[in-house]
Amino acid sequence: MRMGADRADAAAGWEAAFSADLAARFDAIVIGRAARDADARSAALDALGARVTSELPLDSDWSTLTEHAGHPVLIVDLTAQATVPVDVLERVDELAAMRAWPLVVAFTPKQLDPVAAICARPNTHLLCAPEVSEWIATLAIAAGGDDAGLSERVGESESARLHRLNAEVARIAEVVARLSRQSEATRRRQDDNRVASFTTATPDYDISAAQVREVIRARRLRDRFFEGGLFEDPAWDMLLDLLGAQLERGQVSVSSLCIAAAVPPTTALRWISKLTDAGLIEREADPFDKRRAFLKLSSQGGHAMQRYVAAVRESKLPFV
Question: Per its UniProt record, what InterPro entries does this chain match (predicted)?
Answer without folding.
Answer: WH-like_DNA-bd_sf, WH_DNA-bd_sf
